[in-house]
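User: Can you help me understand a structure? I only have the sequence.
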Amino acid sequence: MTEHLPVCARALRRVPLVGRHEELRVLAGHVTGAQAQDGPGGAVLLTGEPGIGKSRLLDRVAGTCPEHRVVQTAGVRSEARLGFAALHGLLRPFLGGLDTLPPPQREALGAAFGLVSGTVADRYLVGLAALTLLAGAAAVRPLLALVDDVQWLDPESADVLAFVGRCLRGDAVALVLAGRDDRDGPGPFDGIPVLSLTGLPPADARDLLAANSAGRLDPAVADRIAAETGGNPLALLRLTRTLTAEQLSGTAPLPAALPVPGPLRAHFLRRVRALPAETRTLLLLMAAAAPQESAERWRAAGCLGIPAHAADAATAAGILTREHATGFRHPVFRSAVYWGAEAADRRLVHAALAAVTDPVRAPDRRAWHRAEATVGLDAEVAGELEAAARHARAGGGPAAQAAFLFRAAELSPTDRVPRFLAAARAHLALGNPASAQAALDRAETDLGPGDALLRARVRRTRTRVDLYCARLTGIPARLLDAARSVAESDAPLARRLLVEGLAAAVVGHGGPGATTPYEFAAAVLASPALRPTDSAPADLLLRGLAARLHDDHPSAVPLLKRALQAFGSEEFGSEPFGSEPFGNGAFGGEKFGGEEFGGEEFGGEEEPGWDGVPLAVLALFAAEDVWDDAGGRAACTRLAGHARDTGALGALQTALMVQALWDVRAGRFGAARSGFEEAAELAAAMDLPPHGPAQQIELLAWSGREAETRAAAAEIAEVWVRQHGNDDFGDRARACLAVLETSLGRYPQALACARVVMEQDRPGTGTRVLHEVVEAGVRSGDHRAAKQALARLEERAAASGTPWAKGLLARCRALMADDEHAEAYYAESVELLGRTGIVTEAARSRLLYGEWLRRRKRRGQARDQLRTAHRMFAGMGAVAFAERARAGLAATGEQARTRAEPADRALTRREREVARLAAGGVMNADIAVRLFISVSTVEYHLGKVFRKLGVTSRRHLTSVLDAEARLP
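Assistant: Let's start by predicting it. Here is the structure, written out as tokens:
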């Protein structure tokens, strides 16, 4: 059963398919593998130049899969600004299942298609909804989805289909995309397997020419045609129609240059220009209209005095299809007609289309046609475009929103800056920083001397562009100036600017003369926008980090602890997050961005939990700095849960990485690995750069994987520090190297790494590294460094007062104490750290205590501590530390037990993720939502897990996959 949708009328054209046996074999294998649920599945992208045969291959695949339900759609250039238009065409047959979707997915998809109001269509929730609908349909009958001309898909549909293609695994869904290969730079379908179509081989080209030539075809002529067209099937056939029978047979000479220009568009345009004037105008009108504007085309033609029979000449010339008088036989015809026309003629047809378009049923199309018909400034048209942008935003279409707003700004006699600014924010939400930069440049050109608030918003958005492109230099100074300019007039905006600038100052270096973190913190504390009575979590975080940098650590501790408590509380959950960067309730005061445009209403929905640096990262800094593992994990869990619920995948992938760090410290290396893998999966689904070992350096270091840890540290130093200026990441890498060197007994090297981090003293790393300096200093004989670190540790641990802080302090005191006092300190450290979730450090205290006891010939007591340390380290997978414990245990005369191979080693990464969640009691539907896959994919993986592990129920699975013992 094939469902040909109206947008695909062009698929009825018939360029004969000759050859392509290898391509057909690959596509058949793709479809068969998806149907069997054991092949590569997912999507495949056919690429090639116009006329190369992509559409014919799609037709052939559709016609050779009788067991599949086949649905098709295609991109149309005139629809490229209409958000989710192509996706709606593809999913239309399945919208009857809308009510079966989880509520967030149902609301997002409904908003995207204009079925509900009041909800913004998050693209990734829409992607999940599309994935669920397609997988649900495939559960009844295998599904083949064909999408042609992807180069003309609206960006929202392209993003969603790419997301679906990357997430399809184990579903009986085969997605085949086709488009041109002339795109410069990255595109939405990066990461999807590509099948490139080139010209036909000479033998196949001769066969195609012979089959379509009425008379004799000279082999030499055929070879020259094939060579000069590059084997392009469409060019082959078009060229034969320009040559005489004598030329084709070889009895008359061929022209010195065959009449096939490089671009096929020029070839097609010559045929269009040979038509009567009224036919050319009708074709231009059809090219300017969207496919769904069939009735409007004829009414507009009537307004221009063009009779319907004017289409006959174009049909006879093979430009329009005979079956659909408004369908171009080849998409290049549409492009050639529109862009080959004079600008005045394009304005004429757009004006006619605007005049006949219903302003109630299709206000967006009417506004765009009016804009395309306008020269100069026009406030009324600009207002219509602004309304269209608002409608596009509600439907989750940032591409349409950006296009409407940018054009509105161009046409505006007034309000140009807010509209350019809003367009820039929409472009950034779309992942198009270059266009955002261009819109900001236009906005700055129109700024006046009294536009302080707008200037601040422009600077803030320019900062977002820089952060998107990982450019940190100059951000603190720019944001500080902006915050000062609006501190009295817009305090909430000023505080956001201060948080972004402070985070950038902490994370990166600014070079000579740049605003230092200390200087920025001083400015924060002196800002009138910051009130001591503010108690919203982000306000507390801002004040706490500023106090930490400017004053001292003890004065910052109460503020940072209160911020963590607020972020992790149940009250900070639903409505307080809202759609604001920190949630409507994260900052005190009125809702940010009350102006009509340029704030939150336009410019794209910001992800909850993101304000330059994700909140999960800022919460991590705070938790590390006050040694509050419970508060840090709770805050991160709340932020990750909200990001997951709202589909804010960018914030979610960062929160997952922070959660994975807490799992590392809890000794749950398997869970940490799964968290990093899930974050990497999300990055791939969003077409972000792939995650490398750098993000997992803490896990690598604790796992004792020396070569990989050093490689990750080298990557961080080169890419993140040198190229992007992220010094905080560099300090984290040094801290991880210190752990690695200590585990290997290389204390001078460990001290060299840890000392740099201590001297930098950034929030988080500067505090968390102090115990490393003490241990490495004592073991390497640098007691001065050890005493300096201990003095700082004593001051900060007293202020913090958490078991984590006091446990580390007791251990460091034991390292520097005489025998009379050391044992009590070691015992205190073991007891205190045993009450925390920092299992790695609890095991280290037992290791050091055991080593101390062994050196004092107290072998029996040493065995108890070393045996426990070895069990803990081996259980979590800390190989180097486990080896130290094993060697110490052997020195007491006891051999450590060999650990059995974990049960999950036979599982793939995805199977392990599904198994871990299922073992934790998460239901299949919730697993699907969490991992951004379909329910049927969950069932598929879970079935394989059961077979591999020999279990028959989730209860048995839980016993096999114990989180600490079985997933190291």
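Now, to help you interpret it: The longest helix spans residues 123-140. Strands lie at 2-3, 43-47, 69-74, 143-148, 173-179, 194-196, 610-611, 613-614. Let me know which part you'd like to focus on.
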